[in-house]
Amino acid sequence: MQSAEDLYRLGEKIPEAERAVAAKVRDYCDTHVRPVINDHWERAEFPFALLEPLAALGVTGGSIRGYGCPGFSPLASGLVSMELARGDGSISTFMGVQSGLAMNAIALLGSEEQKQRFLPGMARLEKIGAFALTEPDHGSDAVALETTARRLGDGYVLDGAKRWIGNAVFADYVVVWARDAHETVGAYIVEKGTPGFEATLITGKIAKRASWQADITLTDCRVPAENRLELSETFADAAKVLGAARPNIAWGALGHALAAYDAAVRYAGERQSFGQPIGATQLVQYRLAKMLADITSMWLICLRLAELADEGAMTAPIASMAKMHNAEHALRVVAEARDLLGGNGILLEYDVARHFVDAQVVSTVEGTDAVHALIVGREITGYSSFS
Ligand SMILES: Cc1cc2nc3c(=O)[nH]c(=O)nc-3n(C[C@H](O)[C@H](O)[C@H](O)COP(=O)(O)OP(=O)(O)OC[C@H]3O[C@@H](n4cnc5c(N)ncnc54)[C@H](O)[C@@H]3O)c2cc1C
Questions:
Q1: Domain 236-381 has what CATH class?
Q2: Can you name the residues that pair with 199 across neighbouring β-strands?
């Protein structure tokens, strides 16, 4: 059966250079990730062996220029996120934290010395990063974070707790957001092995099982002054990092939807019922058409996002609407695909079940669906409904 994945010929909008970047990431996923990821997912094990070939792609650091990073266009950067998520949501989550959050925090808020010290090793994936903003009592309202930073001698002392922190169990550099005595929110890089830092793996997850998140406690955790990201001054700086990463979440949602759609189209051509392929029935064609329309709308949003980012015209509501729309539509597509595969839709080997549950996380991380709707709602009405 023909996939007709790109009915609107949107691929023609992607220049050769960007297409080549996407192709090599897709090849990495097909060759390295997909053959092994179901086992890792089932055992909830992080796929450490996939990091070396991932590093060799030279895509870590995305749009960051210099410091060993590729300096991609927003389009290339988005396509990397899309292809990684299309391959697997756990590996894309790892990269989202490493490249999108931890490295971007240093690139956007670090001094020249800090960028030179931390970024090159992270771009080679020799050093792993984490981004610790969420707390046990503050997720959507991370602005109210309670972790404290106290000046002591020529450094700082961090105390508090963080929750859901990706990569933190094995990270070399954890970017911890904390509030000082002047109520100033800043970012502090806690290096691996620092006394007072403890990360405990969160177990029992039903999604993104091959990526690792942790509960963190910081108890009298001492950080040298040179590890405070120099330009981090308010919570708005944390929001700036999240804002820079957000378009890639919208692209990642598209990746999950594409993987599930491809599997559904394949299955519709193969699976016989009542003496014919299910893809020959009106109902299944109707559902595939709806899925393709959803996917096309996600593509259009992603391509426009990349154009706006290229023009320097990206705003919070623009990124929020993309994240909100694509996460919601990805959920619809993966749910349809799961159902179209019948019983096989819940088996990992059919390549839909993993995307079905992983897409749930896309709608929660880096701002839930509701939070992004409220950001767009504020733009529409002029009223902030957050407080
Ligand atoms: C797999 C995974 C990986 C993650 N990785 C990281 C990471 O690396 N670093 C990090 O810092 N964080 C990370 N997070 C945390 C993530 O960003 C938060 O889960 C997210 O911001 C939501 O916060 P919460 O879970 O506390 O939900 P809550 O904020 O408690 O929200 C619960 C519900 O209430 C709704 N809600 C909240 N406020 C409002 C409102 N004003 N109006 C209407 N509805 C509202 C929400 O939409 C949601 O439906 C991760 C989470 C997951 C699940």
A1: mainly alpha
A2: 216
- Read off the pTM: 0.97
CA 321: distance to chain centroid? 16
DSSP one-letter code for 72: -
Q: Is the CB of 363 under 6 A from ligand 1?
A: no
Smallest CA separation from ligand 1 atom 24, residue = 139
3-state secondary structure of 295: helix
- Per the CB < 8 A criterion, the answer to whether 124 and 56 are in contact is no
Q: Which residues are registered as beta bridge partners of 159? A: 148
User: Does residue 367 come out as left (phi exceeding 0), alpha (psi in the -120 to 50 range) or beta?
Assistant: left
Confidence band, pLDDT 50/70/90 cuts, at residue 387: low
With a 6 Å cutoff on the Cβ, whether 98 touches ligand 1 is: no
CATH of domain 10-123: 1.10.540.10
Measured CA angle at 266 (ends 47, 207), to 5 deg: 35
Query: Average of pLDDT values for 235-242?
Result: 95
CATH fold of 129-234 reads: Butyryl-CoA Dehydrogenase, subunit A; domain 2 (2.40.110)
List, in order, residues 6 or more apart from 22 with CB less than 8 Å away: 14, 76, 79, 80, 82, 83
